[in-house]
Amino acid sequence: MRIKNLELRIMNEEFRIKRSVPIISFLHSKFSILTCVFASLLLTGTSARAGDEQTREAMKGSIVYLEISSYGYDQIRPWKNTDIQQKSGVGCATGAYQVITPAWNLTDAKLIKAKVLGQNEYIPAKIKTIDYEIDLALLELEPNAMKKPLKPIKFEDKFQRGAKLNYYWLNANAEMTTGQGYMDRAEMARSTVSYAYLLNLIVTNTSQETSTGQVYCDGSTPVGISCWSKSSTETGLIPAAIINNFLARAKDGNYPGVPAAGFAAEVLLDPAMRTYLKMPATMKNGVQVTSVYTIGTGNESLKAGDVILAIDGKELDAYGKFLYPAYDRILFHHLITSHKIGDDIVFDIWRDGGKQQLHVQARNFDVGEMLVPYYEYGSQPEYAVTGGFVFQKLTRSYLANWGKDWDGKVAPHLLYYLRDMAFKPTAQRREIVILSYCLPAQINLGYTDLSQLVVSKFNGMPISRISDIVKAQKLNPGAKYDVVEFELDNPTVVIPRQQLPQADATLATSYGIRKLVNINP
Amino acid sequence: MRKKIKPQITLKIFVFLCGLSVLGGECNAAGLGGMEKSVVMIRSAGQEFDFVTPWKPKAMAQGTGSGFIIEDNKILTNAHNVSNNKYIELQKEGVAKRYPAKVAFIGHDCDLALLAVEDKSFFDDTKSLELAELPGVNTAVETYGFPMGGRRISVTKGIVSRIQVDTYSHTGADSHLVIQTDAAINPGNSGGPVIQDGKVVGVAFQGLRQADNIGYMIPTTVIKHFLADINDGKYDGFGSLGVMLYPGLHNPGYKDYLNVPADQQGIIVIETIMHSSVETILKPGDVLTQIDQYAIDNDGRVEIYGLKLDMSEVVETKQIGRTVELAYYRDGKPMKTTATVALNRPVLEFARQYDIEPEYVCFAGLVFVPVTRNYLETWGPEWVKDMPFYLRYLFRNSMQLNTDRARKEYVVLSEIMPDEINAYAEEFKSQVVTSINGATIEGLEDVWKVFEKPPEGFYTIMFMGMDRPLILDAKEAHTLQSKILTKYDIPQQTRLEGQQ
Prior knowledge:
The complex is a heterodimer of chains A (521) and B (500).
Chain A: H1 26-44, H2 46-59, E1 63-70, E2 85-95, E3 98-101, E4 109-115, E5 123-131, E6 136-141, E7 164-170, E8 176-189, E9 198-204, E10 215-218, E11 221-230, E12 234-239, H3 240-250, E13 263-266, H4 271-276, E14 287-292, E15 307-311, E16 314-315, E17 321-324, E18 328-331, H5 333-337, E19 344-351, E20 354-361, E21 383-386, E22 389-393, H6 396-399, H7 406-409, H8 412-421, E23 433-438, E24 453-458, E25 461-462, H9 467-473, E26 481-486, E27 493-496, H10 500-510, E28 517-518
Antiparallel strand pairs in A: 1-2, 1-4, 2-3, 3-6, 4-5, 5-6, 7-8, 7-10, 8-9, 9-12, 10-11, 11-12, 13-14, 14-15, 15-16, 15-19, 17-18, 19-20, 21-22, 21-28, 22-23, 23-24, 24-25, 24-26, 26-27
Chain B: E1 11-13, E2 39-49, E3 57-70, E4 74-77, E5 85-92, E6 98-107, E7 112-117, E8 140-145, E9 154-168, E10 174-181, E11 193-196, E12 199-208, E13 215-219, H1 220-229, E14 243-246, H2 252-257, E15 267-272, E16 287-291, E17 294-295, E18 301-304, E19 307-310, H3 312-316, E20 323-330, E21 333-340, E22 360-363, E23 366-370, H4 373-376, H5 383-386, H6 389-401, E24 411-416, E25 432-436, E26 439-440, H7 444-452, E27 458-463, E28 470-473, H8 474-487, E29 494-495
Antiparallel strand pairs in B: 1-12, 2-3, 2-5, 3-4, 4-7, 5-6, 6-7, 8-9, 8-11, 9-10, 10-13, 11-12, 12-13, 14-15, 15-16, 16-17, 16-20, 18-19, 20-21, 22-23, 22-29, 23-24, 24-25, 25-26, 25-27, 27-28
């Protein structure tokens, strides 16, 4: 079972709002308790049990078992695949031949097969839309391989603190399996891979670890699918609102993604800082912008040091949370991610000793737009091998190859770009291109120990992205050598062009590299 | 999170850290060739410094090592036997009397120290030892000293296994010539002489923990440099050229690209170090081919003392301030220059330091210290991996990252002594200070300059990699200063160089 740790310390810590006990009004909490008691009374009744049985029966035609064969790429030898991995997950029907499942189930999927209750044969499935940020994928099952269509499920926003939830899934033997848990709270969370904070419902005391798409129901109402779990104590659900938005936007096959913040903000508790910012003593709300990106929502309007007082009129407290009636306090990111791309979002900010209002456009960005992408799934990493020198694009997945505590082990000059610059690509610098290492051969004699160097120039051309390497190789046609320069103090790499075709052919054979260059068009 | 640790190194320093009860017995001088008149036991009590909250001393530790008498009634031993010492006591073989001693000179970078004894009777019936040249590989040597396993002088025999340049683990950063031997060197042997034909060929000082019988001694080339250095009454240390080199001429293409004749060997200049004598003379891409009369090969080695050794060995023969003649190629032309040997230390000191009371500034409960290796090692046995990002980045790359010619050191907020004024400062702990109220912080003194007098309004402290400043109400900070110092029993608000 994969565990997505909510408190995962993503390297760059671009968001440092500390989780805290939300301030709940006394009245409100009293009401919650009353509702809980009422709800549990209902559920313990015989009618509730009968209802559960009915729901279980109904789910039989809606839930599928997914078996995924994933075949990723070796980050260090990107011309090579990793070992095949078999994963399993749960799919939930949203159409007659359509299911949703967490995107994480499908990373580097090469073959997806579904099983339904009452049918022995596997049903081939393919990805229609996938969004790793919200952790959802829409799969299409092959209608001709199915005896009968699926019964679509409709997810609904229903949140009752303390409500007993049942979850349903189909196991590998296509048996309907169930378990229970209790709805505890709503939180903004970021998956292990993603950069965006999204609303999760948190279920506690679950019977098992559920993190692969198990369908959670409050009574007969499906409320979400599981996407992470911490042992069997807690499970995160992708809530109905996100699922329904995703389905609505994915319908026409031209899925735009969800907006993401183009800045980082941190708690603003320090009264000295508030006085320094000339905020009135009575003004206790607002969260401080500590870093502004070059991509994402608000990046062009906000400045580091701004205090965000409210978004769309919803007041943010000093922890960056706003009051969402059903969920209590949740992080402001929800006010951005729940918009459609292109929507106008109103930021009330404190800047230069006064209030200002900014209208910003809800924007998203593809992970590939990041200076150092957090992940690359479903495609072969880009690289170029020339003269035995392995040039690659720097990604977080690449650095994660250093294993446990990799952030303390990787070269700090590489980590710097991930930690401080990942969301700050510029026109001059869209990617960080590195000399990963050198495959020893006669042509690179004397250079074989070079590794982990950031490329600054190739044949005099500043390198902004990995594809520039191929362009730069065509420069200076009369020159004897390709010349590669690096950041910090490092030797210059000199590759004799005359020997290069022969050397590359030999290297490709001896090191078993079928394709020396993989650059996406 | 933090605890003080023993240095995490493969090379184990052989100071014997526990005392044994005194054993009686008859004189065992027979077979020692008179060495018992020259080799002495050194017992030292030392106290380390606290590099996070520097006004507090650390626990006391005692150790036993060896030393030997050289000309002019001086006792030569390892620096690590007597580092951070509070009291030193000497004992001669077979003599009950203890003699208090003092450090006359100490060179941490070469792990050597010279001790002086006030009581002249110590030198009754002693014999000083002479220093020899470098011994040949595969020649026999004997080590003398007071290693663990007994209280009497001990002798072991072996041969010279190899001679090369290696790291001296006492500072963890300095490299000099070492001689490897298979003569057993054990804890307590440190500082004892290694003898060939009755003369000293080295000072036993470290060994390889994982290996069998790999012990190292400091050769007489290094000892003589140390002794010559202190002739003027102070120790300056070993210098360098101040240039970063890369052995890239193995590649014929690189050699051709740099316009170096095909039959010419040499080593490529990658960068010169700020403030070094060659900073503006040499350029990246220059190829050094000769240092004094020694030709440099493609590995950067020269033939010296009849051995192939790193070219730094030529620099090691010179004292600070002396010069070497360099021949180099630039753009296909042979050139010559003179370089002055200097300390050329990095702005973030790589070497572990001793005997220097660490500096600090404590203001509004915020403790500022210079970033040194000693400070970084407080992150425990895996400090390189465990320390916060910017400290690691600077430790690895300060020479490239620092472009400020006036920078003396980097300053870090090492600790927060909790008080209402700094209640929200936690996120800034262990971060590197860049400026305060717009003034660039180039050293700890700059921190104090800003805090000494209260400005109007606020102190705005900026940290590396952070856009948000730490804000202090200046007036309030000054009002609370003495109260906080009293609360945490901090004897003085600063300890700065040259400040009493």
